[in-house]
């Protein structure tokens, strides 16, 4: 038993591949000899016994577990439109796809394991919403909210339930628009709160950096700028998504789920009535009975009935189009209100970024000024070193081992020092004047 525990994971749970004929797209894998004793030829250390049940991918990749993990059940919070009741459901991905008639790629946007930008998609029977922490599927009858530990999710469900229970009498906004409005409100308020928090932290830090340039302050500003760039990208994506919806009437019409549901119900009822009428007429007419020419409808009567039916259908479609246009305008006004909010948040972040850029320019100017002062000091120091080097040259000349009459002159040493000092001072002043003349130093 202890030896079995020590074996690697790759040999612990072998995955048996199904036996099938090889093809060009899936070539046959080389066969592995089975061995009951655990020592196979060509496999060092008796490794053939580990593959007795089949083969696995290199590295021990467990494909069935990956499939189960991708299609496992998830917890959803369901808010019903009719009763405003909130309940928790355990639904797998396939059931959710059949329930909302959504493809797998749309539900992938709601998966917390993936990082997708903010998206609002209008489908035939649902609206897929991925706005920051709010990830939900909105239908004409319910909202299916992906359950998580985030407080914003529970606040969204509780606020939607409260608004459904306290619905005003004159409020005729469809349920899906109310749910979408609340999702936009939650996302905009969350991003605006983060922007305000960033502003409160940023401005004092930037003012402190301008007064005292230190490594600690520079590191704090660098982290602040990284957060600002990430938040600006998220706000910009929400703003672009709302603007794209506002500019496309087709997308807004797709989101009017209540009208599409009513249209489907009316068409089904009309089809059932037509079928019942046709069956009754067929049952009431006798095949063997002669048809009286007096009782048979004339051609004009048939045309009149056909024209009346077409006109009623045309009026129904026209009234439906007018209703959809009216609700498109309502949705556009709703989106425009939150577009103003998110655009204001983006302007705050843009102003903060400009302030950070101005602070960086100011700091660079200060550092350039200090660098120029150091260069000027180095220039003066180099000039002074050159002047002092003249004394070294004179000392080297008089320190040579040879006889000269200069050493016999009285006070010769003092005169040499005086002349050398005067010449060095003159050379130093000449260099300073030259630097100022060439504007290498401030006047």
The 3D shape can be described as rod-shaped
Helix content: 55-70%
Q: Rg to the nearest angstrom?
A: 43 Å
What structural class do helix, strand and pairing data support?
alpha+beta
Distance between the termini: 90 Å
Mean pLDDT: 75
Strand content: 5-15%
Q: Could you spell the SSE succession in H and E letters? A: HHHEEHHEEEEHHHHHHH
Number of strands: 6
Poorly predicted ranges (pLDDT <50, ≥5 residues)?
1-55, 280-297, 312-320
Number of helices: 12
Instruction: Report strand order across the widest sheet.
Output: 2-1-6-5-4-3
Main sheet, how many strands, which sense, barrel? 6 strands, antiparallel
How does this structure look, described?
This protein is an alpha+beta fold and 443 residues long. It has a domain at 371-437. The chain has twelve helices and six strands. The protein has helices spanning 2-6, 9-12, 63-70, 93-100, 104-108, 151-165, 175-211, 215-247, 249-254, 257-284, 299-398, 412-437, and strands at residues 73-80, 86-92, 119-122, 127-131, 134-138, 142-146. A six-stranded antiparallel beta sheet has the order 2-1-6-5-4-3, sandwiched between helices. A hairpin with a 3-residue loop joins strand 5 and strand 6 (142-146). Helix 7 runs parallel beside helix 11 (299-398). The protein is rod-shaped and about 130 Å long. Belongs to the CorA metal ion transporter (MIT) (TC 1.A.35.5) family. GO terms for molecular function: magnesium ion transmembrane transporter activity. Its main location: membrane.
């Amino acid at each position: 038993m202890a030896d079995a525990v020590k074996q690697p994971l790759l040999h612990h749970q072998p995955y048996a591949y199904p036996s099938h004929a090889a093809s060009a797209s899936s070539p046959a894998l080389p066969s592995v000899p089975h061995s009951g004793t655990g020592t196979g030829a060509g496999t060092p250390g008796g490794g053939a016994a580990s593959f007795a049940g089949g083969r696995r991918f290199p590295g021990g990749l467990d494909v069935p577990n990956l499939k189960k993990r991708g299609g496992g059940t998830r917890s959803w919070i369901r808010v019903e439109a009719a009763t405003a009741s909130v309940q928790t459901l355990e639904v797998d991905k396939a059931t959710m796809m059949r329930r909302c008639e959504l493809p797998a790629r749309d539900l992938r946007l709601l998966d917390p394991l993936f990082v997708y930008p903010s998206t609002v998609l209008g489908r035939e029977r649902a609206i897929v919403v991925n706005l920051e922490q709010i990830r939900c599927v909105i239908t004409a009858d319910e909202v299916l909210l992906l359950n998580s530990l985030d407080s914003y999710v529970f606040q969204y469900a509780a606020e939607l339930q409260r608004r459904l229970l306290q619905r005003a009498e004159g409020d005729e906004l469809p349920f899906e628009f109310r749910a979408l409005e609340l999702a936009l409100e939650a996302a905009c308020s969350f991003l605006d709160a983060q922007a305000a928090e960033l502003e409160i932290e940023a401005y004092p830090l930037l003012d402190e950096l301008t007064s005292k340039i230190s490594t600690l302050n520079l590191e704090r500003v660098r982290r602040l700028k990284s957060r600002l760039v990430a938040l600006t990208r998220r706000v910009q994506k929400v703003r672009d998504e709302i603007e794209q919806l506002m500019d496309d009437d087709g997308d807004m019409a797709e989101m009017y789920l209540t009208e599409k549901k009513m249209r489907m119900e009316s068409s089904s009822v009309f089809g059932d009535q037509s079928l019942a009428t046709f069956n009754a007429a067929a049952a009431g007419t006798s095949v063997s009975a002669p048809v009286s020419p007096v009782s048979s409808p004339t051609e004009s009567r048939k045309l009149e009935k056909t024209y009346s039916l077409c006109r009623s259908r045309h009026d129904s479609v026209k009234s439906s189009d007018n209703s959809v246009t009216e609700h498109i305008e309502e949705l556009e006004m709703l989106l425009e209100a939150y577009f103003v909010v998110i655009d204001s948040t983006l302007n705050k972040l843009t102003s903060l970024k400009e302030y950070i850029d101005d602070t960086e320019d100011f700091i660079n100017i200060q550092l350039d000024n200090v660098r120029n002062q150091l260069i000027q000091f180095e220039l003066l120091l180099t000039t002074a070193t050159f002047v002092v080097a003249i004394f070294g040259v004179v000392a080297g000349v008089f320190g040579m081992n040879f006889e000269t009459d200069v050493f016999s002159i009285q006070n010769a040493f003092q005169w040499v020092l005086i002349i050398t000092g005067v010449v060095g001072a003159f050379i130093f002043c000449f260099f300073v004047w030259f630097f100022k003349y060439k504007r290498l130093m401030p006047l």
